[in-house]
Specification:
2 domains; 11 strands; single chain; SH3 type barrels; mainly beta; 112 residues; three-stranded antiparallel sheet
Length: 112
């Protein structure tokens, strides 16, 4: 038996196929399996250029970033190695030489 995805609207697990559509009996939401696959791809963390980022990648900072609670600044062009992708607003955890551990937003980096 194939495993159908949960409903994207109400997250119900009781979805079923009706012709070419998937249907949720709980909220009556209908969607195509292609939409479900596209939504899964949209969950990927992307850099400023739209490239998919993965844990272990190396990125370059594209904007001067002030470090909260400090007078130091992460300069443009700073290379950050071995990033970790996490959930949240700041979706990259990393260590930056001379600054230490910090979290970055993926919109301020590009994959190198």
């Amino acid at each position: 038996m194939s495993q159908l995805p949960n409903c994207p609207e109400c997250d119900s697990e009781f979805t079923y196929e009706d012709g070419i559509l998937l249907v949720c009996p709980s909220c009556a939401h209908e969607w195509s399996p292609k939409e479900a696959a596209a939504a899964a791809e949209d969950d990927a963390t992307r850099d400023s250029n739209g490239n998919v980022l993965e844990s272990g990648d190396t990125v370059v900072v594209i904007k001067d970033l002030k470090v909260k609670g400090s007078t130091t600044v992460v300069k443009v062009g700073t290379k950050v190695k071995n990033i970790r992708i996490v959930d949240g607003d700041h979706d990259i955890d990393c260590k930056i030489d001379g600054i230490g551990a910090m979290s970055l937003k993926s919109e301020f980096v590009r994959k190198s």
